TrEMBL record:
It comes from the Bacteria. It comes from Chelatococcus sambhunathii. The keyword Iron-sulfur does not apply. It is found in: Cell membrane. The chain crosses the membrane at residues 33-50, 57-78, 84-104. Belongs to the drug/metabolite transporter (DMT) superfamily. Small multidrug resistance (SMR) (TC 2.A.7.1) family. Gdx/SugE subfamily. This is Guanidinium exporter.
């Protein structure tokens, strides 16, 4: 169940990051409210996941999935460039988190 909580937390993390963009500095009411909900949801589910998962694994996974999701949705929804440098950097993030998970086992 902890991994499902972590997946939900990561989804809320992506929603939080995108919501900040759409809220335009918290000047748009609906996106600002949705962003606040996403913040609470992300932290809430992360805290549930941390009951059973080590913080040294769960937190990096949460931030990595949030980062990767934000990069992909930034490309898909916002028309941001998906350059070779971004792809290599994303692969480095995945490799680093995988290393932390392996080291914790």
């Amino acid at each position: 169940m902890a991994w499902l909580y972590l997946a939900a937390a990561a989804a809320f993390e992506v929603a939080f990051a995108l919501g900040m963009k759409y809220s335009q500095g918290f000047t748009k009411l609906t996106p600002s409210i949705l962003t606040a909900i996403a913040i609470v949801g992300g932290l809430g589910f992360l805290s549930l996941a941390l009951r059973d998962l080590p913080v040294s694994v769960a937190y990096p996974i949460w931030t990595a999935v949030g980062t990767l999701g934000t990069v992909l949705f930034g490309f898909a929804l916002l028309g941001e460039a998906l350059t070779a440098a971004k792809l290599v950097s994303a692969a480095a993030i995945v490799g680093g988190v995988a290393g932390l998970k392996i080291a914790a086992s």
